[in-house]
Fold each of these.
Amino acid sequence: MSVTGKRMRKNPHGWMLAAVLLLAAAGLLAVHSHQTAAVPPEEPAQEEPSVTVIPAEPELPEEPVEEEPVPEEPWGPVAESAPVDDSYFDDAVFIGDSRTVGMYEYGGLEETSTFYASTGLTIYKMFDSKIVAVPGQKKKITVEEALSEKQFAKIYLMIGINEMGTGTVESFMKAYGEAVQHLQQLQPDAVIYLQAIMKVTTERSGQGDYITNEGIEARNEEIAKLADDEKIYYLDVNPLICDETGGMVASYTYDGVHLKAQYIPIWLDFLKEHAVE
């Protein structure tokens, strides 16, 4: 039996298109699955811990810085003033060695003032030496006893030349300082005038023994430091009796150490012009 008519052809592109669509769908599904797996589930938000703020300690005020005190300069000699007359020395006592003996003998104050002076007197034996005459008696008493029996308003001390060959400046000043303190104990109301040790002539100073102007100057510098310009004063007559070499004027002395009688008034006038009222 014969069949007559046209044979149906298969479409070669149809199956290819279906395959492409199928592959595309599979790819989209794979991508979606990958993205879904890669994104982790969101964690619940955690609360931040509370922070306690501690207030800062208040700043303490800075302590004031104390400035170091400026060291005071040693007191200088008593300033020159209008001269006093001899009556100023009515209630004064002069204590010293042979130089003060010269003031007693040639200064004109022997009837006005009191003198406890002796040749060879030293600071070391000043209070123990029996050099004070007792009126109406032949015996003599010590300076310590005399100062204990009578009070004075002024004390003039000139001592130190005889000690030049003994000890050092330090040992001398230790004894000198203690003597001044003891004078204050015995005479609490008195003004004390510490007189610089008189220098010797430049020739005498250069003889090579223990008496030198350098040694005298070293002691005078320390004596000046004891003055307080209240109860203790420092007096230095050396500028008036020394020449350009720094030593005592040669014509003012008979032995290079002691003033001649006619030059004692230079010393006395100096005391009158440097008195504390």
Amino acid sequence: MKERKKRAAHPYIERKRGVCGGRPVIKGTRFPVSSVAIHYHRGLTAEDILHDFPQLTPTQVYGALAYYFDHQEEIDADIEQIRLQERRMDQDPSFQLSRHDKTHSVPGS
């Protein structure tokens, strides 16, 4: 018989259809767990993240990190998808900033 890994409850994290593509976010916000994980991977501490995002509470940041560590494979896959999207946008000329007005150029305008 296969042993199932029991997952802990995460009261500060939720998923909602239509919010951040259904990805896990800090409850009551649109702040993705993946954003907290990205900053953590860049070497920021929870305190650094709180300084950069003062709208978040320590409980929310630590809750997001706990969720990340319990669902690391899933969140890392989300992060990779985000990075792939960013690379595609960087290569798409319609998303390039105009050198003159610092706004996105819109094809045909």
